[in-house]
Amino acid sequence: MSHSPTPAHWEAQDFVERFEGALGKGKGRRLYAFKVMMTKKLIKFNRDFENFKTACIPWEMKIKEVESHFGSSVASYFIFLRWMYGLNLILFGFMFGLVVMPEVLMGLPYGSIPRKTVPRSDQATEMDLSVLLDFGGYCQYSVLFYGYYNSDRTIGVLKFRLPLSYLLTSVGIFGYSLLVVIRMMARNADVGGDGGDDADFTFSWKMFTSWDYLIGNPETADNKFASITTSFKVRAGVWTFNTGIDRKDYFLFLLRIKEAILEEQESRKDDNIHLTRFLRVLANFLVLCCLAGSGYLIYFVVRRSQKFTLEGLENHTWWERNEVNMVMSLLGMFCPMLFDVISTLENYHPRVALQWQLGRIFALFLGNLYTFIIALMDEINLKRKEETIVKFNITTWETSLYNSSMSGNVTAPPVTIHPADVPRGPCWETMVGQEFVRLIISDTMTTYITLLIGDFLRAVLVRFLNYCWCWDLEAGLPSYSEFDVSGNVLGLIFNQGMIWMGSFYAPCLPALNVLRLHVSMYLQCWAVMCCNVPQERVFKASGSNNFYMAMLLVILFLSTLPAIYTIVTIPPSFDCGPFSGKNRMFDVIQETLESDFPAWFSKVFSYASNPGLVLPFILLMVLAIYYLQSTSKSYKEANVELKKKLQMQNEENKKKNKQAALKAQMDLEEARKAATQAAEHRRNNNASFQSQEG
């Protein structure tokens, strides 16, 4: 008689199937042991591979160490610097692969034509160190600058179209940078979640959900930690690390809790509102005075440098030759310090104070940069007037040379002139590129000298003179310096703006910036760990990441304006650069369409570029953006309303549960009282019964 299997039978059969190797003997048991061993090795391999991927991220351990000492606000600067390094590496690849290398490999060599040859009058000093440091001499007629590149429509055996590639690569750099910045802003917005209010149960969320249990890098346990003062009175030895938690990441966890506590304290401050408003108005007035003064100073020194140029730079001192660059660098170094002192009057939340500081330094750098550009436009106009005179003189010289060669024997060979002896124009594009390169180099040197003198030397003096000084140098003046997040971030952003703006006139600028950022990562990491102390008011910087990107986006847009104005409006130099001989630089596109494409395609392109079609298309894009923004705003409001409803429902459920619990407690108390009364009644009955029997 057959019996149907019971649930217990199925459980036993499943257990036997899963552990058949362990329960058996011989070959089956060895196979099971091999499977278990391979599973453990696979888990270990996956963990090691994740650690390897983390270690392959450039400077990840350095940034993590900085964050453990100084919080996420300082670490956000180094993360931003690493991101800028990657962006410039790609821009360097574009410019080097599509412009510089084709000219070097397929173009005419150095010394073959006048634009690639140092003039005879300058050859005696072309390799002098002072001339090279000023980016004159040999550097001026090299691939560093616009004037070196040939204007032939095609070069080399491959018939590479260098002028077209130069223009499209320069414009493509702006387009690629725009896409990358917008994508990063969207990614940072996605990290923020649904955008709702997360102020409820802040410390509970921090305590129970902030930890990442996938961290398993053993090298982090070897780092030394500075003691961190937190509002949680917790010692490092209280927790046991049986789960493999690293001490460094544990301190990071405590530091983030401290950031949250300080934010909560800042949000509960209640000051005199009238005094606060007066001090903030006063601070903004002082900042406006500083901005106006710096703009006037830059315009004054640029006009003064034009006067020195007309008189001859060799007749002036080194400071007078480099006055513009040094004044701009010094203003960028000292004005943020002055803004930091002024900001103490306002008493903002640390993150809000950082954003105000960033905005003011942003206005300072932007005003200085555009004052510099406006002054350069005046110099460009002077160069163009000089170019007209030189062009007339060259025509006269060529005519006289031809007449002198034809005055004698008609069959005589033509006169050959060495490229170094040929007269040439001033090439205003190379002049602009030189100004940008000098500005970036002087800004870099100022930054590094400030680190070595302002931070390192100050820290050495405080450290070794503190034992024999009248007061405590570490606690009082001058003390150790704090890391200036706002100034360094704005320095990076405006340095990148100058790279975008100047790469059209100096194609090797992205390469110089890659080198600068690479050195800055190591030097500033060393300086911040050795010379700086953590900020007194630590705060998380997650809300500032998109603020950095927004400023970078504005600088990108403002950097495209001078380049686009140059391409569309100003005629190029007649004897240097890839666009020489054309009325406008963008004529190379029309020339390519007429020569390399069918007639119908160029006609379609001309129709598509008609303002009658472009303006309605732009209007349609603006309307679409407005519609999408309105839709996003309505979705966000609906999300907030839905969250409020959920919170109300949650509160109602809490009330119902509380009432149910209270009712259950009352029922329990009543039952307990009833039981007590019943027991008392039974005892009384028993006592009365026993007394009756007695």
TrEMBL record:
GO cellular component, one term: plasma membrane
Bilayer-spanning residue ranges: 83-108, 129-149, 164-182, 278-302, 326-345, 357-377, 547-568, 604-628
Membrane topology listed for this record: Multi-pass membrane protein
GO biological-process terms attached to the record: detection of mechanical stimulus involved in sensory perception of sound; vestibular reflex
A molecular-function term among this protein's GO annotations: mechanosensitive monoatomic ion channel activity
Alphabetically ordered keywords of this record: Membrane, Transmembrane, Transmembrane helix
Chain positions covered by the region annotation Disordered: 649-694
Residue ranges, compositional bias (Basic and acidic residues): 669-683
Compositional bias annotation for Polar residues: 685-694
Localization per record: Membrane
A Pfam family recorded for this sequence: TMC
Domain TMC: 427-542
Main location: membrane
UniProt family annotation: Belongs to the TMC family.
Identification of the protein by name: Transmembrane channel-like protein
Species annotation: Nothobranchius furzeri
Gene designation per UniProt: TMC1
